[in-house]
Amino acid sequence: MTILVTGASGFLGSHVARQLVARREDVRVMLRPSSTNRAIADLSLEYVTGDLRDPAAVARATQGAKRVFHVAADYRLWAKRKQDIYDSNVGGTKNLLDAAIRAGVEQFIYTSTVATIAVDRPQHPNEFTDTRLEEMVGHYKRSKWMAEQEALKAAKAGLSVIVVMPTTPVGPWDWKPTPTGKIILDFLNGKMPGYVETGLNFVGVEECAAGHLLAAEKGRVGERYLLGGENLTLKQLLDTLSRITGLSAPKLKIPHGLALGVAYANTLFSRLIGREPGIPVEGVKIARHMMFVDCSRAQRELGFKAGPVAGALERAVRWYEANGYINKGRARKMARARAA
Known about the structure:
Elements: E1 2-6, H1 11-22, E2 26-31, E3 46-49, H2 55-62, E4 65-70, H3 83-103, E5 107-111, H4 138-156, E6 161-166, E7 168-170, H5 179-188, E8 194-195, E9 199-204, H6 205-218, E10 224-227, E11 230-233, H7 234-245, E12 252-253, H8 256-273, H9 281-286, H10 296-302, H11 309-322, H12 328-339
Parallel strand pairs: 1-2, 1-4, 2-3, 4-5, 5-6, 6-10, 7-9, 8-12
Antiparallel strand pairs: 9-11
Helix pairs in contact: 1-6, 2-3, 3-4, 7-11
């Protein structure tokens, strides 16, 4: 049985592809011409070159596939052209769903995100939390909410769609890196003078990928499953990284208003010099509330198990260190701390 994986060159998608290959599945991946296969170069895969925004390329990729893992997403908190995010996340998902129906795909696993339900509520949100587009902060969250609606609509129309909702994956091979990976790297490289009061649910990327396979085995059509681990404040995350590395965690708590002002100024300056802002305004706006969620449904219904987040963070740190992402001074400091 041929299984198509989109987004296999990315962080989470590469782990999904790797685990499918380990099960001796016939895996086909769809990569854009500009993508690198750095994270999956050692795997035995069938390659299709194309862009999700191109219906003809998507039709080629789905031809003969019986199962699709649609992991690809334009995960950015800033883009020079905002429409690109919608074209990839919403338009690309719709193209793939339409092609899957025409190709006779038997099962479609759609990778959504915790962002579509992690909104302000008296209790921790879960898969049954109803949200509105107006509650989504920023273009990435809005586009993923809209794409999820397309996936659920296709399920109602008869396609065997199961939705998985990763929280915040961390671990090795976040090579681009993702916005979360940038936070970890800013800490490792001493570029984080302070922190804001916010929180996220974190999960090891390997366990999150395994959750995709569990959803394919045990998930119910038209249902959503949160794949998450531990709810941690940003301060708790940084303190954990400090224990792993021996580097000091920032002690300065930055008010949200000040952080937002700095983000606006940074974005304006970055626009003037033509580069991506180091502090995206959307990221600061999202951080205004705790994105803590209840992930117990996947545990009960899928048998999903998430390991300690500290272990996943340690694997991430070791991978960044081994691959030259940490500046030499900080790397030496970490080595001295481990030796002490």
